[in-house]
Fold these 3 entries.
Entry 1:
Amino acid sequence: MGSYQKLLGLSRLSSIPNVANPFYTLQKSLQQNRRNRILAGSIRQSSSYVEEMRRAWERDPSSVHDSWVSYFEKYSSIPTTHAPSLSSLPNSDELQKIASDHIKMLLFIRSYQVRGHYMCKFDPLGINDANLHVDKFSYRGSQEQADSVPKFLDYRTYGFTEADLEREFYLNASVSGRGGLIGSKEKKKLKEIIQIMKEAYCGTVGVEFTHIADLEQQNWIRSKFEKPKKFEFDEQATLRVLDRLIYSVQFESFLATKYNTTKRFGLEGVDSLIPGMKAMIDTAVELGVESIDIGMPHRGRLNVLANVMRKPLEEMLYEFMEGTITADAEGHLLGSGDVKYHLGFTMDRPTHSNRNVHISLCANPSHLEAVNPIVEGKTRAKQHYSGDTERKRCMSVVLHGDAAFAGQGVVYETLELSDIKGYTTGGTIHIIANNQIGFTTDPRFSRSSPYCTDVAKSVGAPIFHVNGDDPEAVCWVMSLAAEFRQTFRKDVVVDIVGYRRHGHNEIDEPMFTQPLMYKIIKKHPDVLKIYSDKLVAEGRVTREKVEEMKAAANTVFNEAFEKAKDPNYRPPPSAWFGTQWKGYKTKFQLGKNDETAVPKDTLQSIGEKISAVPQGFNIHRKLEKMMRDKRKAVCDQEKGIDWGTAEALAFGSLLLEGTHVRLSGQDVERGTFSHRHAVLHDQKNETKYIPLNNLSPNQAMFAVFNSNLSEYAVLGFELGYAMENPNSLVCWEAQFGDFANTAQVIIDQFISSGEQKWLKGSGLVMLLPHGFEGQGPEHSSARLERYLQMCDDDPDYIPEMEDTGVRQIQDVNMQVVNPSTPANYFHLLRRQIRRDFRKPLICISPKSLLRHPQCQSDLLDFYDNKGFQRVLPDSLEDIVPDKEVQRLILCSGRVYYDLAAERDKRNVKDVAIVRIEQICPFPYDRVGQMSIRYPNAEIFWVQEEPFNQGAWGYVQPRIATALRDLNGKEAFYVGRNAAASPATGSPAIHQAELDRILEDAFAPNYKHEQWQWRLSDLLSKTKK
């Protein structure tokens, strides 16, 4: 089969071995006749075409060439096993030309399908092309160049001549289910085919779809495009588009009139986005969507809030006058607020067909595209809680700028989640508000790819480009995108090409950098004038009707303005979070912790289940022993419980209580350090078994997923998941804590500050493996100091303290904890759920302690009522009386085990070692109690991190505050020298540094000025 035939997917007739088939007997005869081998070869090569001619003749004899009519009439009257006479066949040259022309016609049509978008009229200004590479195409000559017909769309390139324009071609392809013109089963003249292809692929709407691997999806798109008048609007639909466009355009004009010196990042130039979005929502709801999560940048956000979300206009206008600070029903200020074009909103609203839909617009920072994974996580959580397993009722929509979509890496990271089992949301509709500029940067300097949307080809998403000055085309293609998403549950992209009427904001001067472009923009009418003039000219609406509709919109805007400026007007109290958060406390309502202890029999039942596998399941022999040890520790010895087992007990107990648990991150199913093994693999057939999903028929779902190699998008996804519903424990684990900084935008802009800016909190848990164990600078530090630096508690003020520390936790933006025992980790995870408020938890987790023989807990520690211990007191049994203790060492995390081992080695009895498990909020009360308990002890802070890293910078002023009114003592620092890099790459130097830390920690006459040491000293010690 020839390469062209393979490309077009032509079938082989030889698969129909039937003697009643005339072509079968013809083919057999030709194969036996060497003198006719050339003719036979050409027939075999074109076998699918010949068979198609036979089928077409059977349906309609007039649809095929006369030479075929006589042949089929002669050899189809009765079945025969005799070979046909070659004299009755069409002339071989004639047959070859028929078959060749058919193939060339398919290639010609295919060229329009593949490259027709290059000829579309996308740019409303007529000065650019959305495709940066369009000037690289070659043309056939001066006339064709004038007509803007490139070689690959010129019929003469495929061997046709002007004389063929009136010639008819039968277009039905042999591929079953082929959509569009090729599947039309009709004869068309060449000039008609050209006209259909131009209308389908070279108008104001273009499509890129031939990169999609799925033939069904390609055929679906072809069938939508390759039909006459693919979008027509009746009178009612036309008025709806016009009305929505009027509200979009005049909203911006109204704000420009009332607040002409205020930044609002208006939508002018891509105004048809609003009617397009509303058309998309209408279609999606008709096809079963009940909930939509939207993420978008600041440009156009106010318009979307007003006209798509239907946020009350008086509330928005009040924000222009008074700012965005919000308060609860009692008048308490709820956070710092944010600029109005960052705010989100939630609304239940009807569509034009009176079907209700829940729409949520996520708040976002100015960090472009950062909100994308948040939206996906929220949608996935909605799908989980609503039982939307088909992912057809809850949908994500994300808006982008053209420069950001091409330039920001999180776009690709998020796209790559789209078809991964643990992260898919069944397709996202991506909308590019393409104003053909990025602040002051032209497109040719902001990307290397032809289109700004090319990154979406990586996931096989269809891409629709549309001229923003054609609102009907925009509405049609947006509806088509919703239909595609609901049909195939796959990402789809709509690129609305427009312009930016003003500068980057309304008070920015764009003429500095784009003078020619903005000379044209100043003369260019807005889309409302273009569209209304078109409708009036076509007689589809009267000028009076247009003016009446515009006046009605202005009345709405002015009434809202008058209401907002009324001195007595106040927006309604903020709805704190959402309906799923009902009953959860704000910081002004004291919450409570419930007990985190679990009955002993429940723990042992969980221990039995997590250490068992189904009969016939072939577990790895090493894991067999691990599971036996796990069961023995929990159910028999009731001691020796390690970190991984404690975590499983915490997860299992929450699952039995009805709390959904989700754990995500790189390699989390096994665990980076092979300590978890939440998913077991049969060694013979690779089937999987998840013990924590087999505890009880009535348990909640345990979801554990290895993520792709991404931190930014995956952490954002999990945060969105946690934000959506507080009734779940959502954990993201870094492979190493060092790598979490590639998600710094999510940490800085959402986790640490989202509640204060937008009243959007979460109970997300970040698990960050940390520990200086000689593995070098990239596998040692979770950058604890950075999280502590972002905490918003006052180091000079001791807050109101009560025994549980609840009030203190509610007052801070997030918790930073460094647990050092399995039992405390167990209670920490359960505490995150067993209370009526939520705060993000940064958990510094261990590496070497996962199997450290001293880092184990007794079962009693899990079922007694102590709960999570913010501070762990010294556990040395034969320590001297409290008043004789000479040194109180405060520390946190794994360094405790080094200190305890060194104390035993030295046989020191007058040094107490106390662990600060919860670093933020700082346990002032417990530290004060320890200082009182050891009145004669000097106080040291010992850490393994460098001086300028770790917790020292955070705890130093807080220790001083805790002791200020008790005894005025200060803490001395022991630890590594200040450093730019967290750790050394030399194991020998690492050990020398640790030895020095331990030596200083127990040195009788240590002075804090001596904390620095010389590298030469370390090297000399290493040589010894």
Entry 2:
Amino acid sequence: MELESEKLTKQYLTRFHPYNNFEKFKTNGTRLSSNSRKVFLLKYNKTVVLRKFIFTQKYTSSDFTNDIKQYRKVELCESILKFFAIVKQNVNEVIFIHEYACDGTLRQYLKQNFNKINWNDKLRLAKQLISAVKCLHDIDLIHLNMNSEKVFVHKGDIKIYALQHQNVFNKFKYIQYIDPQYLQNFETYKLNKSSDVYSIGVLLWEISSGNIPFKSESAYSFNLLNAIIHGKREDIVLGTPKEYIKIYTECWQHDSNQRPTIQQVFNVINNIKYNNIINKEEIFEECDKKITNKGKILSDKLLSDLNTTDLFKHYNNLYDKTAKELELISLLITSLKKYLNDDNSVNNQNNLNKEDISINQDDLNDDGLFNNQNKLLNLISSLQSSLVDINEQIEDNKEQKFLYNLNQFFITQFNIQGGTLKDTISSIVYCLKKYIDDNNKNPEEILNEYYNYKYRSYFMSIIGFFHEYGIGTTINYHKAYDMYKKASEDYYYIVVDSSDNLLAKNLLKENQFIGLISLGLLYIDGRGVTVNQQEALKLFLKSVSKGSSLGKFYVGYCYFHGLGVIKNVSYSFDWFLESALEGNAKAQNNVGYCYEFGEGISKDNEKALQWYIKSAEHGNYQAYNNIGYCYQNGIGTLINKSLAFEWYMKSAEGGDSLGQNNLGYCYQYGIGTSVNKNKAFEWYSKSAENGNNLGQNNLGYCYLHGTGTSINENKAFEWYLKSAEGGNYSAQNNVGGCYFNSIGVPADEKKAFEWYFKSAEGGNTIGYNNLGCCYRDGIGTLINEKLAFECFTKSAIGGDSLGQNNLGHCYQYGIGTSINEREACEWYSKSAEGGNILGEENLAYMRNIAFYSYWYWN
């Protein structure tokens, strides 16, 4: 048999080589997997993959020969990995040599490059993927195991591996990509071309999102498998072309007869243009349709000719905990209550013990809640009872009333100030701490009381907030994440949705809103969790679907900064405006910002001021600061420095770190008030301690120059460095100056150059000037007069008077450019107009030279 197989192999392969006749491998290469290595072969002048095959009863040499025969039929397809040769080592072992994909698997490529590619790139990848599978199907070859670990990328282009028998190994490793009909009945159902099409649909979604399908769930979970069988699919990604969504949703239909052929997919995908993209309203419509359809299916199946006992048994067989979510679980409870009210066997519900409203996740596993009728009845009773209890306890217990009032204050401030963004968090923390201090309470004791509170589920978000910002405890992002996660879960809200208790409903609703938004912000910043911008966007959208106006602001925020979605300031403005019209103060402030700077809407300073005032009327401290800035600079109104000072004061007293910095600036330079350097130092200190990098930079200045405090070069350097590390370009220049002049730190010209370079990269004109000096004089780097000239030019054009003087110097003496005395005079003149003494002296010198030259020749 083996001899016959070898004969067939040689008959079909002109690239079959005995081991002794083939190029010896100089090195072992780089290990890619247990049976493959990457090496460079001189014979092909390429980096290739050596893949070892050991023949067994499961995979014989005949299987291998048949695979190679099929491979030869498709190897001319550009999206198939090129086959180079086969090297026979012994009777039962060969090495298959094929093209190496330098960008790794599709999964690796998307992880590393998703933020760099646009929709034209995504469509190109999709077309190449479908073209490759079409090549296989055209010769009746089925891939059998399409997933993003089995698809490769070489120099930005898709490549797939086409040895069919090898593809079937480990096919259950990634169940997200497998035909659900096969998952449902893998003993009798045969994988087919339609199965590949299903996998294509999932891969098209992955290309659109950059994420592994159901990334947050275990790929080996029975619950995930069961949910996929019963129709669970990933959510649509904002900004995706509608035709693209339509074709991949058709591909991942459960019924293989409803899926398109690969030719139909090929035709559609090649005609898609990135213009007709899905918008937010259509996303919500799609979500509603999805929920409604699932709810109808579930309710019809549950309520059709079932008694109460059958209901539990049927539900347990039909759905796992993954599908018990959102409106579906609420629908189930409503149905149960209807049956329970009519069932004479359940007469003693009111005598059941009241338990903590918190539900252990274990209660929702396959052997838990829905296998145990009594436990579910207990849960319903407990939840209903707690709605009454919360009212009674707040009214009767002074301490618990304080906990409730503090939570309400927190909810209000969170919504008004706009959550925990870096530019707003100082206000919320300040207000919360002040509220606690004003009531003579100990934050540590408060946190313990929240933990010990019988129904602490109502307060998960504020507990998470205490952990995130170290109120009454040390900062612990992981605990904050856990608490926000619990607050965001839907199973806390099963019975409440159908309750008439407005207090309990509002408590839990706001608790969930804050949990979802705070969880999203942790994903954006990578605190307590790996950065995942798309997960953050999904959480914000979920909060919107549940009615959060602040959630709409955060969807706009994602569009504004390109977080988890392609940046689109027009969409961003639409989201901000929608939230603002619903009365959200943070969104109103941002609508004002959009009008002031023309972001997503035509610039209109008067409307900017109007929106800032609306936001301020609702208590947003950032808006107070922005109104102050408008009055200081005459934006949408006449300049009025006294009013500017007053608004900055209101903002600063509310804990806004930028307002505190600007109030310090007013005191330092006498804007709308008399100069008071001690107060300037005081407000810069507050701003700096609240994390504002402008305040930190200005505090460094105070310590360096003794403004409102004694000179302390060490502290000056410390605050400059904090500000610089926070991204302040002026502070980065100042840190460079500290290293150059040995201020609070030993002199280090190389580090000075590095910080000047960072500052210049950020566009700081003084940083450009200092970087130019480094290149001109060889400070921390090699002398490069051309680069020096370029830096001085950028600094001068940006308006820095010293940069203008140095650019004049370059033109006067031909440094990095040709000598041009006319240009030198012009730049010295601009420098002098800016008040630079060196510019004035050099301009005078040039004019004297011109005068004596004229006198001499005449």
Entry 3:
Amino acid sequence: MQHTIHAYYRELDDLRRIAGGENEGNLRRAFENLLKNIAEEHQLIVLAEYPLKKITGNLRIDGAVIDRLRLVHGWWEAKDEKDDLDAEIALKLAKGYPADNIIFEDTRTAVLLQNNQEVFRTPIENAKSFEKLLTHFFDYELPQVQNFRVARDKFLSELPAVSQALIQLLEQAHLNNPQFHQQAQQFLALCQRSIGQNVTQNHVDEMLIQHILTDQIFRAVFPDSNFHRENHLAVSIGELEKYFFRGETRMNLLKHLEPYFAAIRQAAASTVTSQEKQTFLKQVYEDFYTAYNPKDADKLGIVYTPQEAVRFIISGCDWLAREHFDKFLIDKDLDILDPCTGTGTFIVDLLDFWRGQHQDLMRKFAQEVHANEVSILSYYIACLNIEQTFYDITNQWQEFKGLCFVNTLDNVGFEQTHKGGINDLFGSLTDENHLRIQAQNKRKIPVIIGNPPYNAKQENYNFQNANEFYQQIDQRIKDTYIYEGTAQNKIVIYDMYVRFFRWASDRLGEKGIVAFISNSSFIDAKVFDGFRKIVTKEFQEIWIINLKGNARTSGERRKAEGGNVFDDKIRVGVAIYFFVKNPALNGCKIHYLTLDDFLPAVEKRNWLRNNYLEKLAKTGQFAFIRPNAQNLWLNQPTEDWTDYLPIANKDVKTGESEKAVFKLFSSGVKTHRDEWVYDFSKQDLEAKIHYFVDIYQKTLKNSDFKDKFNIKWDAELTSYANRQIDKTFEAEKLIESVYRPFIKKWFYFDKHFNGRTYQWENIVGVNACFENLTITISGGSFSKLFQALAISIVPCLDLLEKTQCLPLYIYAKDGSRQENITDWALNQFRQHYQNTGIEKINIFHYVYAVLHYPAYREKFALNLKQEFPRIPFYADFYKWATWGEKLMNLHVNFEKITPYPFTRIDTPSKTNKVRLKADKTNHLIEIDSETQLKDIPAMAWQYQLGNRSALEWVLDQYKEKTPKDPTIKEKFNTYRFADYKEQVIDLLGKVCAVSVGTVGLIEEIEN
């Protein structure tokens, strides 16, 4: 906080010098900015000129610190330096100003009142004392904030029991209430036609429960809305509710949640404008939904688009529509669709964008604005938000009939409709919804905007919640983006973002605009090369604003990415895309703008607020991108790269070509359950596998086995269970594996329990019984520095980064082996160097040396990120091969090397705490409270693998960490560093020696 306070001092001095003096109006902005900066750290907001209604009249306080639910946490009032501060405080309090948590200040003195009495007074120039006052202010919890927190905590603790009681009531109703069961079955049939055949009775029951639990919340925020009386879907579900949930049953069950509902009503009373209500409701919804149903929150991606981004997209579309189609968005016959509307943010801002154009707005709202949503609660909130906003603008209530309750990705009915066919594919939950879907599908829709669900792959497979497959859209992706691309991991191409882009591109027809805020990896990830190729064929103009924020990077790159505009609620980088389809134009122009590095999220949102696409375009802020032959838009590699020998490629791997150095390559093992199948202790690993096998076998016999999810499931293991594949513990499958650089662990090598073993049975045999040498390298689109490491045993996929492996030999099942370096490569080397004595093992060593050459890594850094390495011919082949052999001996045989002779100092300690901390400045390593290793040579830290030195990998991997898997945490959390201390010290000595030796050899290569 001291940094923020000193920034306040500097701003105050600037204002005094520029604006002059003692006047409150001139100087208070500095204090307001101070509060805003501290508030942001506490996830709070400062609102200036805050209105407060009192019995004695309306007050306007200089500032209020509020949260996203608009609960006030504190107040601030500025006075002139020339005023008598104490007299002014007395005067304000007499007028009814709050004294529960308020700062009065005059730039000289700050006074803090809490609970109607002064608790702190300090000269503002005393930074330490001033910091204490501010800390007291922000740490204080007002009664209404505390009451809401307590009510919320009680709600979240009571919610599971209430939900379970509702589930039991529904189960009884299905069995004992024929009238309810009949209505529920009809409702289910309609849901299956509208949303998809994968909808079950459980889903319908879930919708009903959500309706019951949130009804009072909606009514509290929008007490005057006609929504629950008139909306066709709310009425239908409400009618279904009446068949089983009424009277005393309803009262007794919901009374447990009444404290929360009361707190919501009280908090909602302070929301006045539609925007305040929307913000309030979104926050409650996100909080409620994630706690109530994390399974669906994970699946649907419950994250909302910042308003600044929404307005930027809308204004951008308005300009592009004028530029290309000579129309404003509000003009007739320019229909607009948000295909994944969530809580209606885009449509709400669209209506506000048209404020003041009453007649056109009435027409547009009734006929030409459309939105789809598939989550019942989101649908409800979207209706309320949109209709409330329309009322605020027009002073008229009108149901928004452009909103459909439908799964957009399944709704491909527009194709039959536009061809003149009859669209019976999708029914509806009600006749009204059916008519809405039909009406939308009959319209030509030239503008599609929104924020597709962020969740490409669920975080937790044990939710059994994998995102659905969409047959027709997925086939279109296969025929376009995948067909034209080179991606090996094609699963990524079925990302939900990609599906919505594909759907929207098809929905546009001959001309139009698609504008999404989405994943920035489309811009530069190699896996999306097919996507990039297709969009340049289907669209004539593309505008991209790269907002960065990719949290899946690390080190300096992560810092440069800055904050995520979604307040770090998602981990992917973010970009705003405008795709324009205009048949009057030829080719495709790609305009690209990227925000500065290191910007925090709030500055990125400010940038969006202060800029708009038209201004940026007309002032030349965009760069023009020319894709290369590999469909790369950014980071296009060095041209002479293609003259070198490819180290590997999939055509050689499949036998369609011989033109690569290695025939076979493989990823490291991707287990999907590292905590279950790796361990430093062979005995502990054996215990885990026995337990895992036991649960798996019991699940085979009973798919509803109560402890089924005590182990980690994935799609492959589920498939094996469905096929009734029996498993037993096999001791010979306990092998050593290299888990991270220079870190060996015991590993249970089993294709059924390892997720993906790729080619490793062809590299080391079924139970890893064959010897082999392997060069491992960073895989495609890595974010860290390029890495290479030779090994002799099975590696984890994360040994390096997305580790790819190039073995010396390939083994057949009978144990016979062949060399993995191709005859084509051998001939290339012999011909170039005019030396028939070159052998494949020499090439293996030569390649390893080249991959360590700093000049090679630097020159071809971009190329190495895009594809497998290519190998140049350097002068003096055998010298390079010798360097490579020496490096390989160091790295493969690191456990046999004489440890580096650092100095060990032991000092007894009563409470010995594990440290495992590097101090590079003082050339030492702290092992624990008792032991230090001194005289660590500076060279040792220079041997980097990714963002860590080899020594730091050892320190990191041997730290005590809480397991993430709940069963491992409960039953198998046995690792204690003390058991391995001497082993780790010995390993650090060896890795230190390896590091010094490696750096020395690399310097020799460099010179």
